[in-house]
Amino acid sequence: MDEELLELQRQFEFAQQVKSSVRLSDRNVVELVQKLQELRVIDFDLLHTVTGKEYITQEQLKNEIATEISKLGRVSVIDLADTIGVDLYHVEKQAQDVVLSDPGLMLVQGEIISQSYWDSIAEEINERLQECSQISVAELAGQLQVGSELVQSVLEPRLGTLVKARLEGGQLYTPAYVARVTAMVRGASRGIFVPSNLSALWAPLQQLVQQMNGSSGVAVENAFFQSIFNRLLKEEEMLGSLRAGTHWTPSVFAVAQKECVDSFFSQNSYIPYETMQKLGISQAVQFLQSRYPDGKPLSAVFIHSSMIEMLDSTTEDAIEQNSWIDSLSVLPASFTSQDANKILLLCPSVQSALKAEKALILAESFVISSGFIKGIYDQIEKEAEAFSIQASTASLIDHPSKSSESQESIPANTDKGSKKKKGKSASMKTATVETVPDDEEEARPKSKRNQKKGRDSSSSQKLDAKAGGKKESVKAQEGNNFIPPDGWVMKKIVDSVPEFEDEGMDNPDSILKHLADLMRPMLINSLKERRKKIFTENADRMKRLKDDLQKKLDESFLNMQLYEKALELFEDDQSTSAVLHRHLLRTTAATIADTLLHDLDILNKLKNGIEVGDSKAQDSVLLESSERMDLAKNLNGSLSRKALALVEALEGKRVDAFMTTFRDLAEESGLALKKLDKKLERTLLHAYRKDLISQVSTESDPVALLAKVVSLLYIKAHNKALQAPGRAIAAAISHLKDKLDESAYKTLTDYQKATVTLLALMSASTGEEHDCSADRILSKRELLESQMPVLRSLVLGDSQPQQS
């Protein structure tokens, strides 16, 4: 059998060596192959080489690809196509099949890499690590021209076998290097005795490692230190607690904390949260509750139950004796009023007394028995009745006399024209003076007193609404002067209990205020009937007050319109115009605005049943800005909004804006304002000029004379009533240059400069130079007085009218 097989091999070899006498062309071979494929003799796919002269089967292509991979370990698909001579498409397709069939191969970015290749790379990396102790994965990836993630995934299963290293934070470290850094972390961590942030510890360690590695070393990430620390903590080589990954608290510190807390709490039966914070314990309540389950957390302290027992016995004695006690007086200074209130509510005696209405807790820390409160109230109620009767009697006595005085102050002349002239002339006397008149200064405290009464009465009615029991539908509950104010009630309480005086009557949280708030509603209910009577009396008074207000506005608003027209002369001079607008707003405008706001406030109080004492007839009321704002806010609805707009305009810079808001408020209040026409303007200017001439003739102050002369010159030159402050006099004089001859203008400017010099000397006369300055002031004043006749002659001529 073997001999026959050998014979067949020799014949086959001979047939192959014999040259055929008939040769087939390439085309015949192609056609022959195609015919064999059609006849299914060749039942597998054949691939052409890139030269087109050879066929290759897919299985042979796979074998050649596998041979190249086993020979090189890492080969590019493109290089395979060039080496085998087959189109890249077929190479890529078969390469994928080869990779899928062999788990030891991977296709990465067009390259086929075998595990043997990675094993050799791992051995090379291990050799390099022995030389430099650490290598960056990113550096290796750059050298191998692959991604860092791929290098890391390949190295991780080979760590500890082919690669004797530790991978941490993208770095490879040798065991010796890790041991050295571990020793550094262990030593640094054991040297910490207070709570610390580990991030601050890693920075100096990084510097030490950098110095140790030299310039060629790679910076160590914080994550490497942190992982070593976590491992040491897990192995209990360090004792302590780690919060949020970086906040380290050594056990020695925690032990000291607990010892301090235990010592303080055992000695005092309480511990403030502030003390806990100083010890570094942020969540004090949770810490103390877990350590002392029987304790009670308050607002600022944590207490033992013995503190409740101590306070309970003290308060029980006070309640039984119909007395009172301030729990803060028996508690440590660390307790707040909120703490006192909470601990009182935990006392059994206080709980039973509150339930039986035998006591009240006021001002959070005071426990007052109901019998004690009743004794004080009975005494104050009698005095409150006397107070109400006395106030009522005084009001009934004063009301007719003040009404008659008010009627006598109104001119009895039925001639409307002459009455207007007299009123306007009298008003202009005060308008020309630049300082605030004395009678206006006297009016200010009266206004404040009236407002204070209104506020006290209003607050008393609010308390009535809270604790009175029955809600009245009448508007008289808004306030009543016959009801004693808080201050009066608190004073009477102090008279009964002098110990409460130390609490202070101005402190809104004092026991005095709380007792007054408790008693005033009861006093209000007892005086309720008197309040109803006031409504009837207020109706008639409102009508009279509104008529008087209308008369005041008829006169003052016409004057305001007259002064406003003079501002048109300075529209081209913005700086002077602003000063004049501001001055007119601060003087005449403020006066009529204050009068309107003051009277509207009184009307509002009367309308709401508040008893308001009558005030003497007065030309004007002067208010502060805050007082105007309060009066505006106290009005109702749209009236309050328009009053606030008026106050805002008064604080502004434009008179026209004030006039608009004033008209809106007056219209909303039901008041009619007269418009200045040509006839009224001539009449007012004539009266104004006549009054100024009289003042210039009798004026003895050389400084005040200048402003009045300038005002007269403006009436003469422009037919306008100018109201100018001292700092605008120079600009006002310059506007008269074209209206005066040269000598008159020079006289006026020289006098103005001398006036400025005198005022400067007066303001600078202080200290050791007082005597010298006084001589210079006297000399300058005498010089001005000598020039006063010359200045008067500019407006009065040679003959001056006799002084009246």
TrEMBL record:
Q: Where is the composition biased (Basic and acidic residues)?
A: 463-475
Q: Among the record's GO biological process terms, what is one?
A: protein ufmylation
Q: List the molecular function annotations (GO) for this entry.
A: UFM1 ligase activity
Query: Which top-level group of life is the source organism from?
Result: Eukaryota
Give start and end of each E3 UFM1-protein ligase-like C-terminal domain. Answer: 681-794
Which residues lie in Polar residues bias regions? 403-412
Coiled-coil positions are: 532-566
Q: Where do the E3 UFM1-protein ligase 1-like N-terminal domain residues begin and end?
A: 4-288
Query: Residue ranges of the E3 UFM1-protein ligase 1-like domain?
Result: 547-676
- Pfam families attached here? E3_UFM1_ligase, UFL1, UFL1_C, WHD_UFL1_5th
Alphabetized, the UniProt keywords read: Coiled coil, Transferase, Ubl conjugation pathway
PANTHER family cross-referenced by the UniProt entry = E3 UFM1-PROTEIN LIGASE 1
Tell me its family: Belongs to the UFL1 family.
> This chain belongs to which protein, by name?
E3 UFM1-protein ligase 1 homolog
Source species of the chain: Brassica campestris
